[in-house]
């Protein structure tokens, strides 16, 4: 084989190799990563998981309804509460009137939905245990309180197991030490009374929110029998 013929053969081989690389590159790039649906309706298999789809509607002058079709539930809550969606539920921050003499540092209510078995956190002392009937469902409840270095902590938690899904409701209250605000005498007494009233009101509203729990159907996907086959 002369030199020119050898060069032609080499050129043809190079062209064939390039064509094969381009062909297989297109084939692998055209197929999108498979997306799987977890029990909570969130799409996985993409680079980021979007927040669950939710909506809020006004129920009355003082109540709003939070509905999350992706996580399959709806609750009524005081419209004054500040709502924020999370990756697996919703968080409500309960505002505290700054004009009141108090040491309340945090009032928060959270709803978390997970594909797991419900379990309360391990604690040494539980103030009370009970159950709460909501429709045909029965929720378990524990309440915990503690005082550490002058701070007061209180938590009330409800849990409901629905098949493989756990609905978990948590109310958190934290009050700072009166010394941190320099309260003495009548102001100290007033702060303690206001703290108890604020906690009691928010705790009652939280339980009312849990009592309003209803389940909603998640968005329906497209029937596979109606879906057109992908064109190749």
Summed up, what is this model?
This protein is an alpha+beta fold. It has helices at 3-30, 185-211; strands spanning 36-37, 43-44, 54-58, 63-68, 73-78, 82-86, 89-93, 104-114, 128-134, 137-148, 151-162, 165-175, 214-215.
Tell me the number of strands: 13
What would you report as the Rg, rounded to the nearest angstrom?
29 Å
Task: Kindly report the oligomeric state of this protein.
Answer: single chain
Please name the CATH architecture. 3-Layer(aba) Sandwich
At the first level of CATH, what is the class? Answer: Alpha Beta
- Unreliable runs: 7-47
Helix coverage percent of residues?
A: 10-25%
Approximate strand percentage: 35-45%
Instruction: Order the strands across the largest sheet as they lie in space.
Output: 6-7-8-12-11-10-9
Shape, principal axes of CA atoms: elongated
First CA to last CA: what distance? Answer: 43 Å
Overview of this structure, please?
The chain has 232 residues and is of the alpha+beta class. It has a single domain, classed as Protein Transport Mog1p, Chain A (3-Layer(aba) Sandwich). The protein is 24% helix and 37% strand. The protein is built from two helices and 13 strands; from the N terminus they run H-E-E-E-E-E-E-E-E-E-E-E-E-H-E. The strands form three sheets. The protein has a seven-stranded antiparallel beta sheet, covered by helices on one side. It has a four-stranded antiparallel beta sheet with strand order 3-4-5-13. It has a two-stranded antiparallel sheet with strand order 1-2.
């Amino acid at each position: 084989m002369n030199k020119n013929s050898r060069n032609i053969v080499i050129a043809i081989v190079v062209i064939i190799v390039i064509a094969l690389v381009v062909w297989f590159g297109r084939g692998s790039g055209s197929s999108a990563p498979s997306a799987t649906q977890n029990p909570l309706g969130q799409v996985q298999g993409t680079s980021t998981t979007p927040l669950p789809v939710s909506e809020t509607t006004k129920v009355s002058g003082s109540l709003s309804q939070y509905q999350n079709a992706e996580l399959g539930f709806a609750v009524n809550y005081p419209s004054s509460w500040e709502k924020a969606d999370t990756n697996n539920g919703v968080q409500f921050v309960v505002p505290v009137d700054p004009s009141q003499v108090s040491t309340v540092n945090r009032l928060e209510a959270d709803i978390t939905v997970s594909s797991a078995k419900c379990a309360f956190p391990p604690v040494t002392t539980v103030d009370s245990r009970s159950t709460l009937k909501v429709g045909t469902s029965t929720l378990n409840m524990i309440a915990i309180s503690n005082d550490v270095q002058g701070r007061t902590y209180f938590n009330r938690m409800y849990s409901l197991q629905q098949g493989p899904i756990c609905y978990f409701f948590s109310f958190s209250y934290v009050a700072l030490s009166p010394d941190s605000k320099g309260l003495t005498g009548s102001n100290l007494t007033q702060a303690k009374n206001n703290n108890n009233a604020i906690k009691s009101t928010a705790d009652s509203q939280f339980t009312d929110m849990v009592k309003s729990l209803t389940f909603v159907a998640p968005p329906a996907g497209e029937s596979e029998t109606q879906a057109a086959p992908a064109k190749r």
